[in-house]
Design goal:
The complex is a heterodimer of chains A (218) and B (354). By secondary structure, chain A is of the alpha/beta class. In chain A, 61% of the residues lie in helices and 12% in strands. The chains are: A alpha/beta (218), B alpha/beta (354). At the A-B interface, helix 4, helix 5, helix 6 and helix 7 of A face helix 3 and strand 7 of B.
């Protein structure tokens, strides 16, 4: 009825963001500005829209805002720290496996630079404090996106490394089983697995898993 | 009396009925009595409240009971050493279904549905929607909240899994408008928002958290560990003042006064006839019908049991188990979790032993 969140995740994840940037440097980033105060929104828009951003302003809150996020699929969401919608947007990926977006939060509170740094460290993508019409807003958003991309890459790297470790374990186990039951040397066992993998265009990990599942029957 | 290291304290709270302990400690002069000058700052989102506590913009916060665990494990953002030396309230949540969905369910079950409402009654509607490629949509206020675990538990008891429904995070004050617009079929939220949905005839409250888990800790006092280490006397003063407020709230005649104070713009900014019922143990179910009597709807303290407000390891372990069951933490995180280093009974005791 409401959202097809899973589908959206797939669409988003199938296009690595970094590649888009490298191949099409002129690609404009979609920025969703969730701000009920129109004066403030206008100021921010005038700073941002000049450069590489396509900026969309949404003046309403609650679930209608979520629908716009789904429809627009923005690269960045900018929201005021005092907005109640923050929980809804920041936790999309926790509940619905929605593609996470960097969220830049701005605030009119005159916090010191140290506090801002602390806030950013504690999970907020970036803080824009004080007068939003300043040119530095743009650079802060650039940094926020870069930071977010690095974080996503690290997450992907960790997942890849875990995957590699687990496939190495499978291959080792399968090798051991072959060595014990077929009296093969370690090198022969390895070649045996590799040959099956090449003949069937499979990954060695998958072949090892098959061997282990056969082994478990005996 | 304590020799407080810091007199001016900034305390963050969310506008909910169970913010009563911090509001009453302020309004009834308990903070002042214990040598503190506390500024209450209303927050609009749990994420912002958390960020402000982590970064020291606020000194203390009224938090959801699972939040200190989530902060310690860095389940969102960087991990931060948040501790809780005190339970501020137990129970207080309810599950509300839209009137539209309720009427449909009644028509599917010969107009029979008793309270507390069983989630198994939803199964027929869920399977009918499945045929059309559709799901019921529910919302809770935060992923690391008792609301989330309570809604899942209620559905599980009725033979429904999380994959059978859509689940969203919606801020408490947006629940009722989202039900009006037809976007939500149900939600689990704290008072007064269930009563608000009933008063506006848009929802029916079928279950309270007292029906699901009696006396589960709901809101706790949250502090940064290093802040507490620097301000042990101030912490004791805070605990003493809040304990006095919790005790004050256990006198039912005081509860109406609490409702009147909470209805003010700087707190909940809502009508008293929406706030008062749950505070006096009345659960509005359907508008203009007899309410259900739920004496423990809000438990702030116990006049008999002084340990009621002490951090409870057993409940905290239960919360951690629920986090694991929901896939929020893995087995290793669960095993390595040291509950006693987060929920600090010793700090609570110190406040009363000096």
């Amino acid at each position: 009825m409401l959202f097809d969140l899973i589908k959206l995740t797939k669409n988003t994840l199938s296009i690595p963001k970094k590649n888009i940037k490298n191949q099409q440097p002129l690609m404009r980033l979609k920025v969703l500005l969730a701000e009920n105060n129109h004066v403030k929104a206008k100021e921010l828009m005038s700073v941002l829209s000049t450069a590489q951003y396509d900026i969309y302003h949404i003046g309403h809150s609650g679930l209608p805002l979520l629908k716009d996020v789904e429809q627009l699929n923005p690269d960045v969401i900018i929201i005021d720290i005092e907005s109640p919608d923050r929980d809804m947007l920041e936790n999309l990926n926790q509940i619905a496996k929605f593609a996470p977006k960097p969220i830049v939060v701005f605030s009119e509170q005159q916090n010191t630079d140290t506090t801002i740094n602390q806030m950013v460290k504690s999970g907020v993508s970036a803080y824009v404090v004080g007068d939003v019409s300043q040119v530095r807003v743009k650079s802060i958003i650039d940094v926020a996106i870069a930071r977010f991309d690095v974080f996503q890459e690290l997450k992907q790297e960790l997942a890849d490394t875990k995957q590699k470790l687990s496939s190495q374990k499978n291959i080792d186990k399968a090798k051991r089983w072959l060595m014990e039951t077929k009296q093969l040397s370690e090198l022969d066992a390895y070649h045996f697995i590799r040959k099956i993998a090449m003949d069937n265009s499979q990954k060695m990990d998958d072949v090892a898993k098959n061997i282990l599942s056969v082994a478990s029957i005996f | 009396m304590f020799n407080v290291e810091k007199k001016s304290i900034c305390l963050g709270f969310m506008p909910l009925t169970d913010s009563a302990p911090v509001v009453i400690a302020h309004e009834m002069g308990f903070f002042e009595k214990w040598g503190l000058n506390v500024k209450l700052t209303k927050q609009n989102s749990w994420t912002t409240l958390r960020d402000k506590l982590h970064s020291g913009i606020i000194d203390a916060a009224q938090m959801l009971a699972p939040m200190p665990i989530a902060s310690n494990l860095g389940l969102y953002g960087e991990n931060a050493k948040v501790i809780s030396p005190m339970i501020l309230s137990r129970n207080g949540n309810g599950i509300t279904l839209s009137t539209k969905l309720y009427q449909k369910i009644l028509s599917q079950h010969n107009n029979k549905a008793s309270m507390p409402f069983s989630a198994s009654l939803l199964r027929r509607e869920i399977s009918e929607r499945k045929k059309q490629g559709d799901k019921l949509t529910f919302a809770v206020v935060f992923p690391y909240s008792c609301h989330y675990y309570q809604l899942i538990e209620w559905l599980r008891k009725g033979g429904i899994t999380l994959s059978d429904i859509n689940m969203l995070i919606v801020p408490p004050s947006n629940m009722v408008p989202s039900m009006h617009s037809g976007d939500l079929d149900g939600f689990c939220v704290g008072s007064p928002w269930n009563a608000k949905a009933v008063r506006e005839s848009v929802g029916i409250t079928g279950v309270t958290s007292s029906d699901l888990w009696q006396d589960m800790p709901e809101k706790v006092l949250g502090l940064m560990s290093d802040w507490q280490a620097k301000h042990p006397q101030t912490t004791s003063a805070l605990i003493s003042a809040l304990y006095e407020a919790c005790q004050w709230l256990e006198n039912i005649p005081n509860r109406f006064e609490a409702a009147r104070i909470l209805s003010r713009a700087r707190y909940l900014d809502t009508q008293i006839d929406v706030i008062a019922p749950s505070l006096i143990g009345s659960c509005l179910t359907l508008n203009n019908t007899t309410p259900r009597k739920i004496p423990s709807y809000h438990q702030f303290s116990s006049l008999k049991d002084p340990t009621f407000n002490a951090p409870a390891y057993k409940s905290a372990e239960t919360i951690a188990d629920l986090m694991q069951e929901c896939g929020q933490i893995n087995a290793q995180q669960r095993t390595e979790l040291n509950i006693a280093s987060i929920y600090k009974k010793d700090i609570y005791r110190t406040a009363f032993n000096t």
